[in-house]
Each structure stands twice: as structure tokens, then as C-alpha cells.
Input
Amino acid sequence: MTNSRPVIDDKVIARYKRWVTWTLVTLYLLVMIGSIVRATGAGMGCPDWPTCFGSWIPPTDVSQLPENYKEIYGAKLKGEIEFNPVKTWIEYVNRLFGVFTGAWIFLTLLASIPFLKSDRKSIFFLSLGAFLLVGFQGWLGAQVVATELHPVMVTLHMLLAIVIIFVLLYAYAKVSYIDKVKIERLQGKKRALNIWVILSIAIVTIQLVLGTQVREAIDLAVVALGYEGRSRWVEASGTIYLIHRSFSILVLLVNAILFAQVRKNTEGRGIMNRLAGYIVGIVGLEIISGIILGYFSMPAVLQPVHLTLAVLLLGLQFVLFLFLNAEEIFEKRGAVIAADL
Output
């Protein structure tokens, strides 16, 4: 497989690759922080947006709030409000980190500008798309607060974060291809290997959706049992948890076969073998964290880890698909999903 070198300086490529890598790291951290907000019930720790209790710097003690703060904010929260500084600051840090992530994406956009003058203009447009989506994500975050954590809005907020990650992963894979990353030569049929990659992505996506349903069932259990009833959350979540747990066997099986197929059908050890190895490792960690969550009373520290691993797993599978089809995706002008603009 031969990579073509675009007419662009190596320093520009290296700088962009560095920025997009760190931006992806911040995005995955943001997913984890968002999950911490959900796991701790801190989503309405700030009952207004973009301020928090009417201030740009949240209070640390109830004495800093008006005496009638429950009347001011209670109607929005159906009268159930008791100031909790820990939850307030967890939500506020989530917002601050969202702004921080937006700044990284803007810097990545700036680093992509030189690509406009090359034959790889799509790097710029991918970066621009990610930046615009982050702006929309900020608006969607405001709607999450406005709708008092409506489950549909919360799920849409998470799914958009995954879309932004995928856009930047696409840009990362493309610039890595330009930078002549080592992609193994295929020995077997690419079609069969593509089927396994696509199947693994589909299976993990289904498992992620099932996980969101489990999360919603857990939320109902929290309302019924409170945080002191954590040991009974799994039992209260019902059938959906059992389906999610059983489905993990299929996730492990499909991704193990994918790993074996990549090893069998590639010559040498390059980026695809590394990605396949990471995928199997993440699946193992995901299953271990799921077992601990299910059998050890849902430890709060593992809930965000479990979700972040799932999103990371999807990202690795997506990048594997891109490198498996790198020539067709990144070179052929007629490729719908990757043609340079």
C-alpha cells in the first residue's frame, strides 16, 4: 500500500497531528467528567445556565445564597432543591472543562488552516465541522438544564459528543496517513475483514445504547431507593440490566474474532494490529468494570470509567476501519465519505 505525499510542509502535519491528539484526549476526559456528573446526580447542581445560582463563580456555602433561594429555583426543580456545594462544583467543573475543550478544538482549527492551501483541504473542513458541532453542543447542554435532565436530551448530548470525537478521529487518521503511518499489507480478502470490523462496531453501538437504558433504569432506582440503597440498584433495574450483561459475551466474542482475523490477514505488524490489540484490551477492561459494577454495589468511581471505555472502544474500531480502507477513503476522489473538498 503506497501513501501519497501531499504538497504541505512536514512541520504543519506534525503540529496538526499534535493538536488533534491532545484535543481528542480532552474530549475523552470530558466524556468521563460528564459521566461523573451523571453518576453523582450533579446534573442540576447548577439550576441555571450559563451562570450557576445567578453567579459566574458558584457559591461554596448556603450562606452565600439568598434566603429565598428555594423559592427562586425550586419551581424549576419541582420544589426539590437543597443546596449541595459538592454537586454544584462537580457540575460547574464540567462546564469549565467543556469551555477548555472548546478552546482546544479552536486551536486545532487554527492548526488546520494551512491545509486549505494544499490538496488536503478536507482536514480543514473536518476541523471546522468539529468546532461548529462544539458550539451546538454548548447550546444542547443549556437545553439539558432547561429540560431538567430530560433523558432524551441527556442521551442526545452524549451522542453528539461521540460524533465530535469521530469527526476528529477521522481527521487524525487522515493526517496520520499523510504522515506515512505504517499500514500492513493485506494477505487475505479485505471484504471479509471489513465485515468483521463493521459487525464489531454495530455490536458495540447496540451495547452502548443498552447501557444508556440501564443508566435510565438506575436513575429510577436512585429516585426510589436513594443513594443509600446503592446495593439494590442493579436488582431494581430489572430485565434491561440482564440483557446488557448477557450481550457483553457477544461483544467479547466478535472482537476476539476481529483480532484473530486482523492477525491472520495482515503481513507484518503495523497500525492495524496495534489497534486490534487495543480493542481486545479495552473490551477486557470494559467487562471487568461491568462485573465490578454489577456485583459490588455500583461503585461510583467505576461508572464514568465504564462509559468512557465504551466510547474509546468505538473510536478505536472506527479508526481501524479507516486504516483498513485507507487507500479507498483517503485517496480516491470519488469516495463519498472522504473526498477532499
